[in-house]
Amino acid sequence: MRIVLLGAPGSGKGTQSQRLVERLGIPQISTGDLLRAAVARGSELGRQAKEAMDAGRLVEDSLVLGMIAERLREPDARRGFILDGFPRNLAQAHALERLLESLKQPLDAVVQLEVDSRELVRRISGRRSCADCGRVFNLLTSPPLGAGAVCPKTGAAHRLVQRPDDNEATVTERLRVYDEKTRPLIEFYRARGLLQVIDAEGDVDEVTRRLAQALHAPALRTPRRVAKRPARRAARAPARPARKKQPKRKPATRSARARSAAQRSRTRRSAAPRRGKSARGSSRTRGTRRRR
Fold first, then answer.
1. Is residue 87 reached through a cis peptide bond, with omega within 30 degrees of 0 on the bond before it?
2. By the number of CB atoms within 10 A of the CB, which of 35, 36, 48, 117 ranks highest?
3. Which is nearest to 63 in space by CA: 73, 48, 50, 53?
4. In this predicted model, what pLDDT tens digit does every residue of 83-116 receive, in sequence order?
5. 178 and 58 fall within a common domain
6. CA–CA separation, 58 vs 148, rounded Å?
7. Under a CB-based contact definition with an 8 Å cutoff, are residues 52 and 59 in contact?
8. Looking at the annotation, which residues are catalytic?
9. Contact at 8 Å (CB) between 7 and 13?
């Protein structure tokens, strides 16, 4: 599936994207990760992006779209992808639509995660990310537990850090920018028949279930454990004993055929009744009956 997740900062896009990655086996494409990776590689797009960021300018949409196009051509994106954090405005949405048409990879669904503004402030204040692998956690809703407490890159516990703008002082401004720039995307994708809106408040597993229903993705749902019944063995018919191979008979010689014919002739003569005696016996019987 080719999916775009929309939602205000703190709505849980990162958490639900990670669950989609694990259960659908498709990559999450974050523009922030793409920018950092391009800069680290020193590619041409990365060099241009670094110049813009060092100068305090926003990275041009054409550069971001070029990075997205490169990422979508990689083999793991053939089955689908999840775009998280892009597009952020109508201009980017139109440009993304043209790009996906040229790649023949149109979107399958766009999901808007709806959360109350007061809940967003609470969530953002508890959000943390691993400094090594970049995985996002929330100390209030999805802390690192169990196997998820170990960083896949270092093999040790996650080094959790808080983004400088993840504090209550900046949340209000970020929400204002979101309402102004990103909210219009809801109508843009609704007009194209792609939009699904879900309630993203409550238990994380429950939100995942709602997301699965919106995407019509059974693979996201927790499978029920069904007791396995022992397979019935079909009754087998008793095997027939193998036939013994009869030795091939050697062709009879002429003298052997003659002896066999003579033997059959003697057998017929000995088995035949003697007609004379039987006839005389029958005539005597008739004469005796007459005299009586």
1. yes
2. 35
3. 48
4. 987 998 999 999 999 999 999 999 999 999 999 9
5. no
6. 34
7. yes
8. 13, 88, 127, 163, 174
9. yes
Same domain? For 175 and 216 the reply is yes
What tokens appear for 275 in the block? 């007609």
Q: Hey, how many other C-beta atoms are within 10 angstroms of the C-beta on 220?
A: 20
Tokens of 134: 């970049």
Q: Is the whole-model pTM more than 0.85?
A: no
For residues 148 and 9, give the distance between their C-alpha atoms in angstroms, rounded to a whole number.
23
111 shares its domain with 166: yes
Neighbours of 46 (CB within 10 A): 19
Q: Measure the CA–CA gap between 8 and 120, rounded to whole angstroms.
A: 8
The one-character DSSP state at 202 is S
How many folded domains does the chain comprise?
A: 2
- Report yes or no on 143 lying in a domain: no
Between 258 and 85, the higher pLDDT residue:
85
Considering the domain architecture, whether residues 69 and 174 belong to the same structural domain is answered as: no
For residue 151 the two structure tokens come to 């960083």
Q: What is the CATH number of the domain that holds 195?
A: 3.40.50.300
Is the distance from CB of 98 to CB of 61 less than 8 angstroms?
Answer: no
